Amino acid sequence: MKVRIESWTRKKGSRVVSRFLQRPAFDTAAESAARKVLKAIRSNGNAAVVAYAREFDGAELTPGTLRVKRAEIARARDRVDARIKSAIRESHKRVTAFARKGMKKDWQMPSPRGGTLGEQFKPLERVGVYVPGGAAPLASTALMTATLAKVAGVPEIVGCTPCGPGKKVDPVLLYAMETAGVTEMYKVGGIQAIGLMAYGTQSIAPVQKIVGPGGTYVTAAKRQVYGDVALDMVAGPSEIAILADETADPRYVAADLLSQAEHGTGHEKALLVTSSERLAKAVQGELEAQAALLSRQDCVRAVMKKGMLLVVAPNLDEGIELINDFAAEHLELMVREPKSWLKRVRAAGAVFVGAWSPECVGDFVAGPSHVLPTGGTAALFSGLTVDDFRRRSSFIAFTRADLLDVVPVVETFGEVEGLDGHARSARIRFE
Which position among 330, 332, 359, 370 bears the catalytic label? Predict the structure, then answer.
């Protein structure tokens, strides 16, 4: 199976490229299913969660076994290989360092007449993190979500991940959640996990915010609980875009495109935009050769067939515009002097600069969270940060002189907007 190569120019365009860019962020069937499940959980709590865990995951749970017990966590800790523990700890250390560095600080400035203005930041009290675990235990997602909440100072961190018929959660995933700072772990996935966290049940308190990636059903559920809880962003099936010139190694390009094709939802997207037709053809050959070496053949082949495209643009100047139109979750710059092109990126969840920064380091260990906007929503949203787990409050501490200075302005706005009570509340202090 050969991945398609398509020529494209800004002036002439291409129907194939246009269709590739117009990927829907939401699924109609998933929206309908989410609406039904969420309504039931809101009305029936634990009973509905248990029923849907049985229906969707084949897990025979009870209200008393939804939560992972301390003894299970301790057994998991003992069962995880030392090499895996070391990798988890190293990732956690780097994610923690990046989060601490990125935290906004309280600040203030003087007002014109001796008062102060500023902002202060306080952590949320209770948040929920969704950790996918159907196709494989995504231990890295636990680290890329709960770690940030812990650094922000959130005292209660709820983690939800699915279990199968054996009612067990992978020990590696439990160890990662514990390392990241999760304080309550539940064996619940999919729509029912979002409902549990958003609405709570008879035995589980609701959270204030839900973060974390998921497939189309989780994404649909998150959209529908917005307003009852805060959300991070739309974080659905994974995607990657690569801007490359003739200096790029086709082996690296192909490997990086394939890395995002193996996640398993079938909705992943992988786009190469290059100014070199020779590179595009070399990458096409490498994709075939390397795909045959991967374990998740069905997933990879499905994406290669309908979710992968190699585009040849006349030059990188036009190519970067197509890249910005795509607004990828992950963007790699595999060009000569890649840092000079970084400034021209307008829309991308995360940017990987140069041949030694493959997207996989962002998934597992570099430091920034891998929870990023997908489906073109990188044009609207940014990736998850530590400040997503904190509230920002501005403050105003005027002096008498400050208020007197602005009374005429307040009175003018009150007159224009028909709000004489506003104007009076300022003027009365000087009568």
Answer: 330
Half-sphere exposure of 139 (CA within 13 A, CB side): 22
Written as one letter, the residue type at 306 is K
The mean predicted confidence, pLDDT, of the chain is 94
- Is 90 a known active-site residue? no
60 is catalytic: no
* pTM for this predicted structure: 0.92
Greatest mean pLDDT among 53-67, 124-138, 146-160, 263-277 lies in 146-160
d(CA 272, CA 4): 11
Domain boundaries, position 342: 15-22+236-366
Which member of 178, 239, 329, 359 is catalytic?
A: 329
Pair (135, 199) in one structural domain: yes
47: left (phi over 0), alpha (psi -120 to 50) or beta: alpha
Assigned domain for 220 exists: yes
Of 366, 389, 410, the residue at which a domain comes to its end is 366
Is 397 in contact with 116 (CB distance < 8 Å)?
A: yes
209-211 and 126-130: which strand pairing? parallel
For the segment 220-244, the average pLDDT, to the nearest whole number, is 91
